[in-house]
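Aim 2 progress update. The chain analyzed this quarter is reproduced below.
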Amino acid sequence: MNFKRKHYRLQSPPAIVIGTCGHGLALIHALSNAGVSVISLDTNPTLPGTRTLFSCVELIPDINGPALLDSLLDLHTRIEAPDKPVLFLTNDRMVHTLGVHWHRLADKFHLSWSACSTPLLPLLGKHNLELRCQQTGLRYPETCLIHNDMDARTAVTTIGFPMIIKPVRPLAGFKTFLPSNTDELMRWTEIHQPDLPFLAQRFIPGDDQAIYFSALYLDAGRVLARFDGHKLRSRPLGHTTIAESFRNEEVYQQTLDFFDGLNLSGPVSLEVKKAPDDSYWVIEPTVGRTDFWVGLCIANGINLPYVEYLHQTGQSVPNLTQQDQAVWFNEERDPFGRFWFAVQPDLALKGRQDCYLYLKHKDAEPAKQALKKLSKDLGRAAAKRLGFR
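Predicted structure tokens:
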């Protein structure tokens, strides 16, 4: 590993991937395998992705807040290339930070959605999604905001159970929570005070396999690339851990409807849930970045990061055809998911490959590091269950 600040003399503009989590590593592999020079930034040298052979990794103080801009400006002074580097982000907080402060970077980097940050940034807030669905005629579950105990009791009266709780702000202390009664909701509100406000929402019946998504790369509203997928398992709820390629024209159309008229550019996606009556309900969009499951798209013929790179550097984007040749497994959050999949009577690879977050034979070090971390985590969990400290 080499985390030193260095100078880069390159024959083509590099891709700058911010974050070396499993999501960032998928971007690194996709871009590097397409012949793009990749520089990645992170704060944590213990992340498996920092061990990759496919990127120069630099450590910086912060990848989410305003200090990120200072690090990017410093990096820019050390890059010699024929065009501006292209930025790739991996979480919503980064999207917000760069969207708000883009004037500091505008003449030094490419960012696919920089010209449309005004309509894009409000979509990061879950509290804005109900209005957007009303504007576009899409179904969105009944919702209320919880700022305090009184709001929580109001939510129980208004929505009732089953109910799902989501934090409004990105990168909160939890992803989702399903309280089964009022006492559980009140305890959760008390424990997670720092994460307030929450979104309380009527839970649409159905398990993980009722969730579908469509991912697009847009150029001022025009679709340059498309991928439709199907979620098979989440651990915990909200974190996709197994997914497959699944073309779905209705989900695709709902995604087009959701983003219609906003003239957005860059990567976007929409996740929806199919209710028992076959109606589709919006769960949430992703804007300004690809989703954590982008490896599924890449493994099935739609290399969204490379499409973004080509578009931002003024190159022609090829017509890509979605394939169904790989099932994606997130072994970090669901280390035994592959075994679960193997024993499900209604699921099978059906000739498809299994594709993993870290396990890549040409880049083994991240997988080794992830395995070490998993072993430690399992050891700690076992010791806790046995009463050891």
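The chain has a mean pLDDT of 94. The radius of gyration is 21 Å. These observations will guide the mutagenesis experiments scheduled for the next reporting period.
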